[in-house]
From TrEMBL:
Transiently phosphorylated on a His residue during the reaction cycle. Phosphorylation strongly increases the affinity for substrates and increases the rate of nicotinate D-ribonucleotide production. Dephosphorylation regenerates the low-affinity form of the enzyme, leading to product release. The modification Phosphohistidine is found at residue 216. This is Nicotinate phosphoribosyltransferase. Pfam families: NAPRTase, NAPRTase_N. The gene is pncB. SUPFAM superfamilies: Nicotinate/Quinolinate PRTase C-terminal domain-like, Nicotinate/Quinolinate PRTase N-terminal domain-like. PANTHER family: NICOTINATE PHOSPHORIBOSYLTRANSFERASE. It catalyses: 5-phospho-alpha-D-ribose 1-diphosphate + nicotinate + ATP + H2O = nicotinate beta-D-ribonucleotide + ADP + phosphate + diphosphate. It is an enzyme of class 6 (ligase). Residues 7-127 form the Nicotinate phosphoribosyltransferase N-terminal domain. Gene3D superfamilies: nicotinate phosphoribosyltransferase. It comes from Orrella daihaiensis. Its EC number is 6.3.4.21.
Length: 392
């Protein structure tokens, strides 16, 4: 069994799930899987993926796990009570062959509150099933060499005392076992430079900090749940603040692109939120614009945190840290480059929300290849409403 615990997912799934319980318990959603890596035949693994999903849907939270979740400062007791009854509903997920080139279709449909935890473990399952066939005897010696090379690069870099990195690699990891080893090595070797992991189960078992706030699906769903489309980003941020009262204050900036984010992220949000997360587009341009935006809103950028998490490597993270050193706090979330770097090409797989309450929803990224929507007419309307350029 690949997934042993329902905690084997990213923290932001639980922080969003608590918002759903308290504010949108009746919302109905649809997610869709996509493999962006060409010429990958996943169809031969469907039966194995199905069996792993069967096992996933039999899992329940243990009392030890619930005690851990309940110990997190921002988790409320009624949410823990809900999790005590929770399981993933097997009838809400379907895996079938797609029409071409060995692709597969994975769709999730059902109540948002009961399906939100599917995404991360299902992606981890697809990855591990695929790589256990591509590389039955993984080259862990090469993986360790590469990981030590990254760690040494940082530790030997001058003026990097303030460098902080977290592991964000659950969804695209080579395997659960390798993920566990990576976290162990980072904790043992990096000292105060390693600040935690997005994976709640890894955090609990290794005694490190779980990290994360909100994901794209939260702001996407608010396109259907808010009072009107143009106000959906403001509605999402306001609702988040209502739930967490200033805690978990890192805002995601790229659901509508940076221009639209900055139009909505006014002085109130600049002061209220601790910072913002970068997940697409040029990180240097993004960082400079965020600093300028804070200055324009009479907020000292050095009191705010910019979290970079888009396809990072250690050399790129170090370069970003150098650029913004002393000007703004920076932190880094590195995923695939940590948990799936053993000399094989990682899969570029995602599972994104495409509908909420029967209405299309979309992410319009600063990186065009990350835009995902199954309704071109809605996407064009969204671009018009947020004054975004037409699709390239």
């Amino acid at each position: 069994m690949i997934i042993h615990s329902l905690l084997d997912t990213d923290l932001y799934k639980f922080s969003m799930m608590q918002v759903v319980l308290h504010h949108f318990p009746a919302a109905q959603v649809e997610y869709r899987f996509q493999c962006r890596t060409p010429n990958v035949d996943l169809s031969v693994h469907i039966d194995e993926i199905q069996r792993e999903i069967d096992s996933l849907c039999e899992l329940r939270f243990t009392e030890i796990e619930l005690d851990y979740i309940g110990s997190l400062r921002f988790i409320k007791s009624d949410f823990v009570d809900f999790l005590r009854l929770f399981h993933l509903p097997r009838q809400c997920i379907e895996v079938t062959p797609a029409n071409t080139n060995g692709a597969i279709s994975i769709s999730v449909k059902g109540p948002w509150l009961h399906t939100i935890l599917f995404e991360i473990p299902v992606l981890a399952i697809v990855n591990e099933v695929y790589f256990r066939h591509v590389s039955p005897v993984p080259d862990t010696h090469e993986g360790r060499r590469r990981l030590h090379e990254k760690i040494d690069l940082l530790l030997n870099e001058p003026d990097m005392a303030a460098f902080r990195v977290a592991e964000y690699g659950t969804r695209r990891r080579f395997s659960r076992q390798w993920h566990d080893e990576v976290v162990s090595m980072l904790k043992a070797s990096m000292g105060e430079h390693f600040v935690g992991t997005s994976n709640v189960d890894m955090a609990r078992r290794h005694g490190i900090t779980p990290l994360g706030t909100m994901g794209h699906e939260y702001l996407q769903a608010c396109q259907a749940l808010g009072p009107r489309l143009r106000d959906s980003q403001v509605f999402a941020l306001e609702t988040w603040a209502k739930e967490y009262r200033g805690d978990l204050g890192i805002a995601l900036s790229d659901v509508y692109g940076l221009d639209a984010f900055l139009r909505d992220f006014d002085m109130y949000f600049c002061k209220l939120f601790d910072g913002a997360r970068h997940d697409s587009g040029d990180p240097f341009v993004w960082g400079e614009r965020m600093i300028a935006h804070y200055n324009a809103n009479r907020v000292d950028p050095s009191t705010k945190t910019l979290v970079f998490s888009d396809a990072l490597t250690f050399p790129l993270a170090i370069e970003i840290a150098r650029r913004f050193q002393g000007r703004v706090r920076v932190s880094f979330g590195i995923g695939t480059n940590l948990t799936n770097d053993l000399g094989l090409q990682p899969l570029q797989i995602v599972m994104k929300m495409v509908r909420c309450n029967g209405q299309p929803v979309a992410k319009v990224s600063d990186a065009p290849e990350k835009t995902m929507c199954d309704d071109p007419a809605y996407l064009a309307y969204l671009r018009h409403v947020f004054d975004l350029p037409p699709s390239p």
